Amino acid sequence: MAPVATGEGNGAGIDRVDWRAMSKSADLINARAHGEHGPRIAAAPITWGVCEIPGWGEVPGVDHVLDEIAELGFTGTELGPDGYLPLDPGELRHALGSRGLSLVGAFCPLNYRDPGAFVASHEFGVALAHRLAAVGCHTLVAADAGDARRSAIAGRVTGADGLSPDMWARYGEGLADLARAIAPLGVRVAFHPHAATYVETEAEIDAVMANTPADLVGLCLDTGHVAYGGGDPVALARRHAGRVWHVHVKDVSAAVLAQVRAEGLAYPDAIGAGGFVPVGDGLVDFPALVAELRRVGFDGWYVLEQDVRLGPPWPEQSPRENAVRSREYLLRQLGSGA
């Protein structure tokens, strides 16, 4: 699907893109295809412990994960780590379509902090966008790639731990360049704040938004990662109304987060200890969040996620049970029995 031009130039040789109109049209097509009415709720492989970090934990098979996502009533999924789902567009369309699933987004870690990584990050993002466009997905979920330093202090970040104003300006240029490059494909950039990266705190999220064009780069509001970083998802939704293009619905254990802050637990260990919990069991105020998203007119996908680590030495988890509980809770908040 081509982006909708408003006729206003943005100085980059392309028309200003009306992403809200494009998103609404694409989602309507998906909803009609699946006979779906009401809120669009998707899942993601991370709920089944599928993560791009080497040595993260046991990884269930693709068929098992997609079968459970479909069986539980979800009509969409995100892509998961690069290469987990089929790379070939035809194979991916079959894997999803045969289960009544749409691809609604793809996580894309990028390093625009390091000028030496600009080209590789740009090329990776563009290549991924081409694959997304081939299967009718229009949201690239960009995120900072992070590093070991920020992983060690996630949940305890101070202003001194972040980027300089010049680095933020370059970061914004990298994201904007990527967004301009993939806009003709009908794919947009929604930036995802993430614990253990350089865009974790509210101030860092605000810096990304301030250094990127509002018509090119939106926000993937991940409620769990925002809360992990000490932020308020409701306040962010209010402050960046109109730029919330995609939502990751995730909750945080108050007990584990307190342990992170008191004992200095590193991010991977905190997740293994149960840092993220089924939606409604943690500290995020979802009734207030849903009300605010309705107020600002959000009509995109709600993607349920619960980052977990499976297998020894981590406590036993049931991704299926977690997903059921989270979906039922979110449906109650949204006021739909879909």
How would you explain this protein's 3D organization?
The chain is built from 13 helices and twelve strands. It is of the alpha/beta class and 338 residues long. It has an eight-stranded parallel β-barrel, surrounded by seven helices. The protein has a two-stranded antiparallel ribbon with strand order 1-2. Strands 10-11 form a two-stranded antiparallel ribbon. It is globular.
- Helix count, DSSP H or I runs of 4 or more residues: 13
Task: Look up the CATH topology.
Answer: TIM Barrel
Supply the CATH class: Alpha Beta
Average of pLDDT = 91
Order of helices and strands: EEHEHEHEHEHHEHEHHEEHHEHEH
CATH homologous superfamily grouping: Divalent-metal-dependent TIM barrel enzymes
Q: If strands are numbered along the chain, what order do they take across the biggest sheet?
A: 3-4-5-6-7-8-9-12
The fraction of residues assigned to DSSP E strands is: 15-25%
CATH arch. level architecture: Alpha-Beta Barrel
* Amino-to-carboxy terminus distance: 27 Å
Radius of gyration: 19 Å
Helix content range: 40-55%
What structural class do helix, strand and pairing data support?
A: alpha/beta
For the secondary structure, the number of strands is 12
**Biggest sheet, in brief?**
8 strands, parallel, barrel
Q: How many distinct folded domains?
A: 1
Unreliable sequence segments: 1-17, 19-36
Approximate shape: globular
